[in-house]
Amino acid sequence: MKNLILITIDTLRKDMVGIYNHKFSLTPYLDSMEECCTVFRYPYATGPYTQASFQGILTSEYYLEYGKEKKLNPKKILISEVLKERGIYTAAFHSNAYLSYYFGYNRGWDTFYDSMADEVTDMYPFIRGEGINNKVEEFLSNFSFKKPLFLWVHYMDVHEPYIAEEEHLSKIDPEIKLSKEEMFLLFKNTLHPRDVSDANKIDTLKKLYMANVKETDGYLKDLFAVFSSHNLLDNSTFIITSDHGDEFSEHGGLSHDGKMYNELVSVPLLVYEKSCKKKLIDTPVSLIDIPTTICDILDIEPSPSFKGTSLLSPSQNRTIFGEAMGKIGHKEKDTDKPIYYLLKDSLKVIYNQNDSSWQAYDQKEDKKEQNNIISEIPDKLKGKLNKFINRERKE
Questions:
Q1: Would you tell me how many other CB atoms lie within 10 Å of the CB of residue 368?
Q2: What residue ranges do the domains of the chain occupy?
Q3: Count helices and strands in the chain by DSSP H and E runs
Q4: Using only C-alpha atoms, what is the Rg of the chain?
Q5: Residue 44: beta bridge partners?
Q6: Residue 272 to residue 34: CA distance in whole angstroms
Q7: Backbone φ, ψ for residue 31 (5° rounding)
Q8: 116 touches 101 (CB < 8 A)
Q9: What's 3-310's CATH class?
């Protein structure tokens, strides 16, 4: 009996994972799993923040498929709905308000924990990884295992406001001596208003973020110990990814606003099976492929609404798309207009409707996306993105 476990780590940049960037040692536990993983070297989110990305991860559809909406459109089919209908037990544990029952993400789950009934603080506006792990442990201890299981676990600990524990921060930079109150003020006075005027403060914010990545790797280690104690490692496939990254002034901003640069949309994606050997996939893939892949692994017909293709056989000629609102700040404004991107081979094309601007970058020659080569790219790529932008929307 096959189980499928999806683990998502909010705000985790791909370049913070040692498997992808060997100069960092922030994720020793995750890196230790590499030899049993299919490693997708070029995975991309469908958007640069939670609302835009998770619709790809859980519904295999793009954010603006039905136009701009505050809640998940009821016509979008969650992977949980497809699996539950086929007799698979579905369970979810997370603490992201944008993925809560209020926004429509509770459909199709036999067990759904979104923490909205729990008290949180401004300093920790989410349930931390230890609490999520305890919920998973309690659930598994009472689960009969008479049905195959689809389990989704989501961690928020990397996310701002970047309140780092001393034990982790000291390993990143022992010279940083900040109280948690001072860390929170750095969030309120620098990150929240997107103030990039002080490079030292931005550097400190990034190191606090990195300390949180290290902390979350520890939660992942503890979670797999829970899975091991319930004998889930031998008969489960694990998909591990992130919904988006975070910016530290690479393109003049902070946090995760409506931009389509790699620090926001380039994410880790690993498929782990204890009995498998390491495999590298060089073909660019999209997180919109995750629901279809889950169906493929569990030998279930995907929903006709799913836009993705199975990661078990990624297409060599794939074009990757993403869309979001070009917002600045954690809330979308009524005046915000969409932003889109296309990735074909090594070329990324971005169109921002807010200022009608076009950008293009060669991912091989310009990994930091600093040299806009829009005048050099084939017109057909702009045409292909325009076709995506102007596609017929659903009603």
A1: 11
A2: 3-310
A3: 10, 16
A4: 20
A5: 266, 286
A6: 8
A7: -65, -30
A8: yes
A9: alpha beta
pTM reported for the whole predicted model: 0.97
Question: What ranges make up the beta strands (E) of 70-135?
Answer: 89-93, 111-113
Q: Does residue 316 surpass a pLDDT of 80? A: no
> What is the pLDDT, as a whole number, of residue 206?
98
| pLDDT value, residue 329 | 86
The pLDDT tens digits of the residues spanning 238-274 come to: 999 999 999 999 999 999 999 999 999 999 999 999 9
* Whole-angstrom distance, CA of residue 173 vs CA of residue 189: 22
C-alpha 3/C-alpha 147 separation (Å) is: 9
- What span, in angstroms and rounded, lies between the C-alpha atoms of 220 and 80? 22
What DSSP letter does each residue of 308-376 carry, written as one string? ---TTS--TT-EEEEEEE--SSSS--TT--EEEEEEETTEEEEEETTTTEEEEEETTT-TT--S--GGG
296 pLDDT band, cuts 50/70/90, is very high
Q: Which long-range contacts link 366-375 to residues 24+ away (Cβ below 8 Å)?
A: 367/262, 368/250, 368/262, 369/251, 369/261, 369/262, 374/349
d(CA 350, CA 361): 9
String of b and e for 205-241 (b: at least 16 CB within 10 Å)?
A: bbbbbbbbbbbbbbbbbbbbebbeebebbeebbbbbb
* CA distances in angstroms from 208 to 105, 166, 170, 217, 249, listed in the order given: 30, 10, 10, 15, 15
Distance CA(199)–CA(85), nearest Å, equals 52
Half-sphere exposure for 250 (CA within 13 Å, toward CB):
19
Q: Which pLDDT tens digit goes with each residue over 113-161? A: 999 999 999 999 999 999 999 999 999 999 999 999 999 999 999 999 9
